[in-house]
Amino acid sequence: MSVQPGWYVDPADTETRRYWDGEGWLGAPIPVDATPPDGPPPVEPPPAPVTPAAPAASGTPGPATGASGWPPQQGPPPGYGPQPGHGPGWGAPGGQPGWGPQGGQPGWGPQGGQPGWAPPAGHPGWSMRPPEPRPHGFALAGYGRRLTARLIDFALVLALNVVANGWFVWRWLQEWAPYWQEVFRRASRGETSADGLPIPSAQAESLLLVILLIATALWLAYEVPAMAAGGQTVGKRMMRIRAVPIAADQPLGIGRSLSRWSTLGLPTLLWYCAGLGLVLQLVDALSPLFNHPLRQALHDRRAQTVVVEVPQHTGSTPSNDRNQPSGDTP
Prior knowledge:
Elements: E1 6-10, E2 13-20, E3 25-31, H1 143-189, H2 202-230, H3 234-238, E4 241-245, H4 253-265, H5 276-286, H6 298-303, E5 305-309
Antiparallel strand pairs: 1-2, 2-3, 4-5
Helix pairs in contact: 1-2, 2-4
């Protein structure tokens, strides 16, 4: 996703702003506290050609003319130019290191090969990273905020499960209690045999399936309607972040919200299969760390959404880039 054109703080000089046209920096910089124009900077007229002055007559023989009566020299004197075994970047006469064409010719570093040199901002060889994407004018939410919001939501869904699933969990634990009591008793005596261990009844499997169905339904009812209406659950609202479609700044709707939740929520039913669902959910939770530049989780990519920060002063208006502090990058 390309960055929208506009005036941004120059990453190379945080005291100035420059205009980003979607592919590169354009025009001359302006002070960071100055009010930028509404559009791109005006195109600067090309410099007027300078006619070189004719050299003054001199009695001293020059390197090209030589002394009076002598023919002009053919080529540079011996020792000047590329030396044997030198490729691009050859040195000066005598092989002095660090020498290069002067006058700011493109592609050449400063005299002496000073370390850390880089082309100025706007140079075709500029290698700094481009400004971070700002979908619909909002900054992307950091992973710390997203993780904290998700943990808050999990805590609330767990509280709902304590109420709705408490009896089923207690019955399931009662089915497994004799088995684990016998395992611990044998372990305390140093016995390693598994013969004769009490096996839970078939009701334990039915109870586990009911528990997972209820937990999945509670998570669905908690998250999907809230995300469809405003892109925020309780946790996201507390952390001032929300999910928006990539295409436009608008509510997710039931379809997109359900598609987003199902990638992360439906694997809860696979906890029944040796914890496979938990592994899938862990991979989804870590996936924003490896997605650049939009930091999308697997469920974001499926629903084509991104998670952005909500400015403190308002819940829906994009932040004005002109109000950035002088040290911020776009």
